[in-house]
Write a structure and sequence with these properties.
Length: 393
């Protein structure tokens, strides 16, 4: 049996609506969002969806995180606490703003930041918390930690479109700034694109200026109020994203329906743990946590041989062990900004520092690709293969 993939049309919801959107922009002759209408409309629709006042579009999910980090304005050497289990795009914006990523350990069941570990990592130079809703599960408890410390919370929602907290608030609308990705592999896509949302008008303005070279564009004068780069989204991307945004509720409904089926099918399986709240989870991937003596690589190998799109660990190594942080240069030949803080606050990276994250990556975490076009037959085949893989291990 073949499985729909987000790498091609079998696993995407791209269709006539997106073709019409692209055609509309091309016929208008205006492909730039500076003077066009599509990206501004996308921002309004994104803000309305999340019931917030402001949304800012940009060129990628990593760019969205960079806008957020730039907006909270860390000084060189300030620290931002984040997770060791995420894409490097979560860490790169911290370094790009000359700030220092400080990692806190994760919950061993969800892979999301452990609020207790985050609170323990806060120091005098902590400027923000950057939490990730891993695989689409809400990272709970972080807003309370951020509020107690008087610092902003940035939510990385790249994998968490329409994820809901236990109180049903949408991910991205709980923190100070929420960041989203429209990259090829996400729930909805325009190839590459990003969005930020916030209730804070001043932060929204900072992000908009940073995405457009500090050019305010609202008074007809060519001037640059602040430092910024060019992270503008094009009208073509914005139009496709608008068409995709209308399909988002259906995408999530379909992913949640089939995920519920697999959760039920694996519920009685010993040494296998699955997410407990499928109706609030976004199911970017389907994560499974294995208990010893099962190991993720052994089970993943068995699943792959059975034709299941499964992987062990999600990352080659957790981010705090990434070569880029362990010893490689950051700017030029220097380790700046990692060598800037006072000696007592120079972060410690490497194996042995975040044991829960390390155990998930190397031993316990198994992920299965998930898609809105999976059928009951796909789910039943996955369940059968998982049962066989863990029974034979």
């Amino acid at each position: 049996m073949s499985y729909p993939s987000m790498a091609d049309s079998s696993g995407r919801t791209l269709g006539a609506e997106e073709v019409e959107a692209v055609t509309r922009v091309l016929r208008s002759g205006m492909l730039s969002s500076v003077w066009g209408k599509e990206v501004r409309a996308l921002e309004r629709e994104m803000a309305d969806l999340h019931r917030v006042s402001h949304a800012v579009a940009c060129s990628s999910g990593t760019a969205a995180l960079h806008l957020a980090v730039a907006a909270v304005a860390p000084d060189p050497g300030d620290e931002i606490i984040t997770t060791p289990i995420s894409d490097f795009g979560t860490v790169a914006p911290i370094l790009a703003q000359n700030a220092v990523p400080v990692f806190a350990d994760v919950d061993p069941d969800t892979g999301n930041l452990d609020p207790v570990a985050v609170a323990a990592a806060i120091g005098p130079r902590t400027r923000a918390i950057l939490g990730v809703h891993l695989f689409g599960a809400a990272a709970t408890g972080l807003r309370e930690v951020a509020d107690a410390a008087g610092i902003p919370l940035i939510e990385d929602c790249a994998q968490a479109w329409l994820t809901r907290y236990p109180d049903d608030r949408l991910a991205g609308a709980v923190g100070t700034i929420g960041c989203f990705s429209l990259q090829q592999w996400k729930h909805i896509t325009c190839g590459d694109g990003g969005l930020t949302i916030t209730e804070d008008a001043a932060l929204a303005r900072r992000m908009r200026l940073f995405a457009d070279k500090g050019w305010p564009r609202d008074d007809g004068v060519r001037r640059h109020e602040s430092f910024g780069v060019n992270y503008r989204m094009t009208e073509l991307s914005g139009a496709v994203a608008r068409a995709q945004l209308t399909k988002l509720p259906g995408v999530l409904a379909d992913r949640r329906r089939t995920a519920r089926r697999l959760v039920a099918a694996l519920a009685d399986l010993p040494r296998v743990r699955v997410p407990a709240d499928p109706d609030r989870h976004a199911w970017w991937l389907f994560p499974i946590v294995l208990d010893p003596p099962l190991t993720n690589r052994e089970v993943a190998d068995r699943l792959v041989r059975a034709g299941i799109p499964a992987r062990a660990g999600y990352l080659a190594e957790p981010l705090h062990c990434a070569p880029a942080l362990m010893g490689g240069p950051i700017y030029g030949t220097s380790r700046y900004p990692l060598t800037v803080p006072p000696a007592e606050r120079v972060p410690t990276y490497g194996w042995g520092t975040q044991p829960n994250a390390e155990r998930l990556i190397t031993q316990t975490l198994l992920v299965i690709d998930w898609n809105e076009h999976y059928t009951d037959a796909h789910v039943d085949e996955i369940a059968k293969a998982v049962r066989a893989a863990v029974t034979d291990a």
